[in-house]
Amino acid sequence: MELHTVEEPSYLEELFLIPVSDTHIGDPGFNERELKKTLEKGAQIGGLFLLNGDIVNNAVKSSISACYEEVIPPGDPQIDYAVELFRPYRELIVGMVSGNHERRTTREVNVNPAYRIAKELGIRYFGDEAFIKIRFGQKPNKKPVTYTVYATHGWGGGRSVGGKVNAMVQCGKVVVSDIYLTAHTHQITAFNSALFLPDQHNGNVIQMEQWYVSSGGYLERQGYPVCKGYQPLRIGSPVLRLNGREKDVEVTL
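Above: the chain sequence. Below: its structure as tokens.
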């Protein structure tokens, strides 16, 4: 695992981080209008975006998604469409993580749409997980405020919100981070926790606050969710506000 650094100006008093995932471009239920609203609002507040998987639907014959029902054909058409949607905001995108829908063709024919989209946009492709250090602002001691973010597309957690939350918590067993970003379930949710860490330099114990955030999605309830009786979920993305004067996180759902 590699730690990637994002440096932002010291004069910033706050920074907004917006995870975008599960847009499923190409699926008949893709809500393009809501995605554009998220991107436009994020740009207005100077936010940073992280693309966290399933940006394209990428249906194949062996997948649950029906490839013949795609309104934008899989492959180059979906990739090109995604690139054009995100191109105006590429300077604000810190990178892209692959999701299970992108991995469909990676597994079958070694074609990775997430890699292609990232390359076309000129942004960093993280692979299946990202570990990022964000430095910006200035504390009273003149040092920048630093946040760590671990992001992965995630995996299923069942129908219940509790099951989805339990799946998110597993990320805390992988790496110690200030923020954990997951996706996949289309459930927008967030909660915070804490962890005691030994401060070996000063010989004491510090309490580390941690946030677990699931980024939701942009797919209307139709097709597979209807057949399986899944409840409708709110479309959109959460917004994380990072304080640039002291370490503090606020999440708006």
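The mean pLDDT is 91.
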